[in-house]
Write a structure and sequence with these properties.
Strand content: 15-25%
Number of strands: 8
Shape: globular
Distance between the termini: 19 Å
Strand order of the largest sheet: 5-2-1-6-7-8
Radius of gyration: 15 Å
Helix content: 10-25%
Bound molecules: pyrazine-2-carboxylic acid, zinc ion
Length: 197
Amino acid sequence: MHALLVIDVQNDFCPGGALAVTGGDEIVAGINAQMGHFDAVVLTQDWHPGDHSSFASVHDGKEPYDMIDMPYGAQVLWPDHCVQGSEGAAFHRLLHTDRADLIIRKGYNPAIDSYSAFFENDHETPTGLEGYFRTRGISEVTLVGLALDFCVNFSAVDAAQLGFKAHVRRDLSRAIDLNGSLDEAEKAMTGAGVKFE
Ligand code: VGL
Ligand code: ZN
């Protein structure tokens, strides 16, 4: 069984959004077109409380894209984005959300960011997606979405490390590319055994 895992195709990651990824909206039609070719379709939704610790606005004297040390490691500070219930957190209006078997939200714990669909950024606290995949007999996952160098990357590496066959469709992903993050992400994914298509 092969799942399509659609990462964070939300307004805030599309042009005009709070953390816009260049070309983020260009991938929506292609993702919709893929949905019928998979045994399962899972969407993720970045879903932060308004005072989330990944927001620069909650740290005195910090600006978006500064780095800080968190108990679980280095953390980029982001503009406020994907606040629970906001228009920015909603899926792109053209994404075929009706086709989704499961929508998994992440980043709801104020103290810790969660790039991966499988674990929070401590690499320990599970989201439950692994169990969902295993109980549905899914052994293979194709990842698409936003952003290639953050949430797609972390999700793909975790999928591969958990033993799922993991593929990333570059043509259906777009990157933030912050201080070499895209190069680093490509190395991490390749090193974990993720296949690019
Ligand atoms: C993401 C930064 C912060 C992503 C989410 O979806 O890649 N990036 N939150
Ligand atoms: Zn986020």
